[in-house]
Design a protein that fits this description.
By secondary structure, the protein is an alpha/beta fold. It has helices spanning 14-26, 38-47, 68-92, 140-148, 171-181, 226-238, 254-259, and strands at residues 2-6, 31-35, 54-57, 62-64, 97-101, 108-113, 116-120, 123-127, 132-138, 152-156, 159-161, 166-167, 186-191, 209-210, 244-248, 264-266.
């Protein structure tokens, strides 16, 4: 099993990703896709008059403030527009894809953090009415039914809380949990850079190899959204995933090239 995580950057080569997955499946490789869509969600939220808010946790990570209205916009974009875009492209490429959110069948399940401890201008604050959570369990039984029947699962946040509530979960960390649950041979995380960069955004500073035991040490080089990707990689490696690769989602055959050694290889 290879788990693919694709970010929501608008300069990704989506058609190349679809074609590569179709080719790999035709060659007998078992695959599963998790996608994001933060950029599109931000644009839609602005257009609907509910612009995104970002908060910094006490540990220094930036995340989306998810009130109930934001969650509804999130579901509309991720589960509707983007998920069905991916499914349509796969169907046109001859791949019988099934698009599901992590809420469906509790594919991604965990604990809702209804309060969020953050820092604003150096002051500690507690935000309530928050609809975020973490993925602690993956419904591999449902996914295995689909895979064994020849379908390609195309998954996206949100997930489900242990009470069945919809919760915004991080896609990179959700993909890491899926890879861990299936004991995947590889987790390939595609974004709009060639991999982890020592001096972002200078692409000539690509870090090509990271020893699995030292993965956490490289968090210092992660900027912006890459922080969550490195966090997901560290979690996947800790759970026994054999290899995590940060690959370039802008190029032709991005997954094949990542598996052949391009990008940042952790393992």
């Amino acid at each position: 099993m290879i788990v693919i995580k694709v970010g929501g950057g608008q300069d990704l080569n989506i058609d190349a990703i679809v074609a590569d997955i179709a080719s790999l499946r035709a060659a007998g490789q078992e695959l599963l896709l998790v996608h994001g869509g933060a950029e599109t969600t931000n644009e839609v939220a602005e257009a609907l008059g509910h612009p995104p808010q970002f908060v910094t946790s006490e540990s220094g990570y930036v995340s989306r403030r998810t009130d109930r209205r934001t969650l509804e916009i999130f579901e509309m974009v991720y589960c509707g527009q983007l998920n069905k875009m991916w499914v349509e492209k796969f169907q046109r490429a001859g791949v019988n894809a099934v698009g599901l959110s992590g809420l469906d069948g509790r594919i991604f399940e965990g604990t809702r953090k209804d309060t969020l401890r953050v820092r604003v201008d150096g002051k500690r604050m507690v935000l309530r009415d928050d609809w975020t959570g973490t993925v602690e369990r993956v419904n591999t039984g449902l996914l295995r039914l689909l895979l064994d029947a020849g379908y390609l699962p195309v998954l996206t946040p949100p997930g489900a809380s242990d009470k069945g509530e919809a919760v915004n979960v991080d896609g990179d960390r959700a993909a890491a949990m899926v890879a861990a649950a299936f004991h995947a041979e590889a987790l390939v995380i595609l974004s709009n850079v060639p991999g982890l960069l020592r001096n972002f955004p200078d692409e000539s500073t690509l870090i090509r190899q990271i020893p699995r035991a030292k993965a956490d040490d490289y968090m210092q080089y992660a900027e912006g959204r890459m922080k969550k990707k490195v966090m997901g990689a560290v979690e996947a490696i800790a759970e026994g995933v054999q290899k995590v690769i940060f690959g370039d989602g802008r190029v032709e055959q991005p997954i094949t090239r990542a598996l052949a050694g391009e990008g940042t290889q952790i393992g």
